[in-house]
Amino acid sequence: MRLKVKILGKKSLSSGIEMGLIILLIIGLIIAMTVGSLIIIDWENWMSLFLTKTIAIAYLSSFPVLIMVIEFIKIFQNLRKEKAFEKQNIKYLKISYIASFIISGIYLFNTILMLTKITQIDAFVVYPILMAVIAIVFFLFGIGLIVLTEIYKKAIQFKEENELTI
Amino acid sequence: MAIIVNLDVMLAKRKISSLELAEKIGITPANLSILKTNKGKAIRFSTLDAICKALNCTPGDILEYRE
Predict the structure, then answer these.
(1) Looking at beta carbons, which residues of chain B come within 8 Å of A164?
(2) A128 vs A124: CA distance, rounded Å
(3) Do residues B1 and B60 make contact, with C-beta atoms less than 8 angstroms apart?
(4) Cα–Cα dist A71/A88, whole Å
(5) pLDDT tens for residues A120-158?
(6) B42 contacts in A (CB within 8 Å)?
(7) What is the Cα–Cα distance from B52 to B59, expressed in whole angstroms?
(8) pLDDT at B5
């Protein structure tokens, strides 16, 4: 038995994912604004403790994450409109992979910072490793998006050649 | 690209409009315009065959190589 799922167009998986990402964006914006306000209001306390300082640095990654979510919403909007191979999607993917590398850089910086400061063995195991894993995941995600961007470019090139074949 | 499509010249020689030719060979005027303005990337043999039949000419009358 083959499961038939509509990927492109209205009332499809793409439109569902688009809706989900919009909800995620709204929740993300609310959380980012709330946490940001808390950090700004209690700035001195946040910067006094090493752990809270690293959390504040990690908070910076919320901006590229939100940008990435916005770009993915735009991509899925095009998929909903059945415009899979549009040049705009290349631009959205480029912004997404740059954002991914920025996030990876922030977490890598946090990892290095933690390695130099943490002395307790249990904290050493949990926090830097967690930060390093997140850094590696976003780095690999960025690489994946670069590959996808190149594949998209080729696909659009073939589509244009086909359209201009009379 | 060095391949030039001289469709305008042949249309003028045969005193036929591009709309009439598009109708005769079964392609849209928009696609014919792509050919005429050298924006096309490739032409199918079947299309070239239909154009030559409609204009009573050879492929060499339509296509030219110019460096």
Answers:
(1) 34, 39-42
(2) 6
(3) no
(4) 10
(5) 666 666 778 888 999 999 999 999 999 999 999 999 999
(6) 161, 164-166
(7) 7
(8) 92
Chain A 134-163, residues with CB within 8 Å of chain B CB atoms: 160-161
DSSP secondary structure string for all residues of B4-49: EE-HHHHHHHHT--HHHHHHHHT--HHHHHHHHTT--SB--HHHHH
Q: Is B44 on the interface with A (CB under 8 A)?
A: yes
Does A46 have pLDDT greater than 80?
no
Instruction: Say what the pLDDT of residue A124 is.
Output: 60
* Phi and psi angles of residue B5, each rounded to the nearest 5 degrees, phi first: -100, 115
Residue A119 has pLDDT above 70, yes or no: no
b/e burial code for range B13-45 (CB count within 10 A of at least 16 → b): eeeeeeeebbeebebeeebbebbbeeebeebee
Bridge partner list, A165: B42
Which amino acid is it at B35? L
Dihedral class, residue A88 (left if φ above 0, else alpha if ψ from -120 to 50, else beta): alpha
Torsion of CA B51, B55, B59, B62, to 10 degrees: -90
Average pLDDT (B4-26) is 93
Contact yes or no for A165 and B41 at CB 8 A? yes
Give dist(CA B43, CA B49) in Å, integer.
10
